[in-house]
Amino acid sequence: MIVGVPKEIKNNESRVGMTPAGVFELVRSNHTVYVQSNAGVGSGFTNEDYQQVGAVILDTIGQVYAMSEMIVKVKEPIKEEYTLVQEGQIVFTYFHFASSEALTKAMIKSKAICIAYETVEDEDGTLPLLTPMSEVAGRMAIQQGAKYLEKPVKGKGVLLGGVPGVAPGKVLVLGAGVVGIQAAKMAAGLGAHVTILDIDMKRLRYVNDVMPPHVVTEFSNEFNIRKHIKTHDLIIGGVLLKGAKAPNLITRDMLKEMHPGTVIVDVAVDQGGCVETTRPTTHEDPTYIIEDVVHYTVANMPGAVPYTSTMALTNVTLPYVLALAKDGWEVASSKNEALQKGLNIVNGGVVYKEIIEAFGWQSSMV
Prior knowledge:
- By secondary structure, this protein is of the alpha/beta class.
- It has helices spanning 20-28, 47-52, 61-67, 101-110, 131-148, 178-190, 201-210, 222-229, 306-335, 337-340, 353-359; strands at 2-5, 32-36, 56-58, 70-72, 90-93, 113-116, 170-174, 193-198, 215-219, 234-237, 263-266, 287-290, 293-296, 343-346, 349-350.
- The chain folds into 2 domains: 2-120 and 306-359, Rossmann fold (3-Layer(aba) Sandwich); 131-304, Rossmann fold (3-Layer(aba) Sandwich).
- α5 (131-148) packs across α6 (178-190).
- It is globular.
- The two termini are 30 Å apart.
- Keywords: NAD, Nucleotide-binding, Oxidoreductase.
C-alpha cells in the first residue's frame, strides 16, 4: 500500500503522524511511504531521518494526499485539507467528529474511509490509541494550570504545592479516567490537595487504592461540583464519552460561584468540552477570561511537547497502520474488532451512531 504522512497544518501543531521507526517497519513490509518535506521537524525528525529508512520525501501536502492510498496523521483535516481527501482513501487520525459538524459533513462528502484513533476500542473498553495522548494531556493540565494560577497571567496567585506554614493549593478533577488519574498524580506530586469526582465507583475505588491520602474521592453530581468549585483553585475537566460530545458539568452560571482567578483546564475541549463556556483555543493564544475565571482550552495540548507525544502515539498506532496497509480497511477491520470500532465514516455514510446522535440527525447520510 502507498502510505502518506503529511505535515500537520493546524495552529502550532508540531507532532507528526509517524516516526522514522514506524516508517522503517512499513518499508520493511514492502509498503511505499511518502512523507511531506519537513513534516517531522517539529518533533525532532529531519527529512534525512525519513529518507534513511526508505521514505520518499514530497514537497507539498497536495502531492502526499494525491499519491497516497492511506493518510496517517495526528489531527483532523482542517478546512484547507477538506478538498485534498479523496474518495476511497483511508484517513487514519484523531477526528473527534462529534465536536465539528462542518468536518463531519466534509468527510461525508469526500467519501473517504475515516478511521478515528479515539474510537478504536479494546474488549475491556479501553481506548488504546487515545490513552497515550490522554496521559500527556492529563499531566500537562497540571503543568499549565499551575502556571496560569500565577498573578501576572490573571490567576489567583496560588502556588499549588504551598510552602511550610501555608496550605497547598486545591485541585478539583472531574473524571477518574486516564486524563483525571494522570492529572491527580501530577498534582499530588506537587503537594496539592486533590479532589477527584466520577460517577463510576469502581474507578473511585481504584483511585482511592493507588493515590496518596491527600487525593480524596467523591461521587460526581451537581451538588458536589457546586460545593467544590467555590473552594478549589484549579479545575481539570477530564470527562470523556466515547465518540460523543462531552456533557456540560460546569455551566456558565457556576462561574459566578468561583473565586476570581480560579483556573479551568478543560481537556475535554476536543469533544466539545465539559464546561459550558469552553471554546477551542491555540498554543498561540491559549487562555481567555469569563467572570474572572481563567479558561485554558487548547484543543491540541500534547502538540506542545511533540517529541514525547509523537513517540508515544506511533508506539500504539503502528500495529494498526501495518494491518491496514497489509490487508486494506475491510479485511483488517473484520479481523480486528477494536479497529472496526474505529470506523466512523465509510464511503459517504456515518457508521458510528454517537456522531449521528451528537448532531440530532435522522440519517447517517447528509
